[in-house]
Design goal:
The chain is mostly helical. Helix content is about 35%, strand content about 5%. It is built from 9 helices and 4 strands; from the N terminus they run αββαααββααααα. The strands form 2 sheets. Strands 1-2 form a two-stranded antiparallel sheet. α7 (about 165-170) packs antiparallel against α8 and α8 (about 175-185) crosses α9.
């Protein structure tokens, strides 16, 4: 779909085509709206041809993948659950009695409680904007000392989050479920970003490519 700026490309794709395809794939038609081949069509257009040839419609836009630093590429594509499971299966983790939850920075257990897993602390300034500083306790690593002592192939969970996507693809080459997601991120041009890069630092185009990778 091409056209000059302001000609309505986004409106056509988002508000007409996507809505119509989405409605056409709903199981139960509503009789008050037009129908094509027994499926409901969104009121954005009178008629839609060929919807039966499209198996699934997914809208991949440039909206953020998360609005806090806790959201990042590996959590968004659901690969972090597998990584946490790998760390929980190590001998060190079993000795400490750690579960996959101890390797999450979102819940108490293995995270640094000073910054509550953010890696940074916010200093409120009375007359100026708040300032974010690297946490003195964990030095930005998000986890407590015991959790960081658990290693998978000589890397801590914080080391994994600090890797680039391209490095992580090589590191997890023997773990197909993780390697595949990293390969897809590389194929959409995101090999240079960090595995745990905060969603708030991604550009609109980068966020869009993370979404595209997840769907692929």
């Amino acid at each position: 779909v091409t056209g000059v700026s302001g000609s309505g490309k986004s409106t056509l794709v988002h508000d007409v085509l996507y809505r119509a395809l989405e409605a056409a794939h709903r199981a139960e038609p509503e009789p008050e709206e037009p129908e094509v081949a027994g499926a409901r069509v969104a009121p954005a257009c009178r008629r839609l041809e060929g919807a039966e040839r499209v198996r699934q419609a997914v809208l991949v836009d440039q909206s953020p993948i998360g609005r806090t630093p806790r959201s990042n590429p590996i959590t968004y594509i659901k690969a972090f659950d597998i990584v946490r499971g790998l760390f929980a299966s190590t001998a060190d983790a079993r000795r400490y009695g750690f579960t996959p939850g101890h390797f999450s920075f979102n819940v108490p257990g293995g995270r640094c409680e000073t910054c509550q897993g953010d890696g940074t602390v916010t200093v409120e300034m009375q007359f100026l904007a708040d300032v974010e500083l690297v946490c003195d306790e964990c030095k930005g690593k998000r986890y407590n000392r015991e959790t960081l002592e658990v290693k998978f192939k000589d890397k801590s969970i914080a080391d994994i989050l600090d890797m680039t996507i391209e490095d992580a693809r090589e590191f997890f080459k023997a773990v197909p479920s993780i390697r595949k997601t990293m390969e897809t991120l590389c194929e959409v041009g995101l090999g240079y970003i960090k595995v745990g890069q905060p969603a708030t630092t991604l550009s609109g185009g980068e966020a869009q490519r993370v979404k595209l990778s997840k769907e692929l």
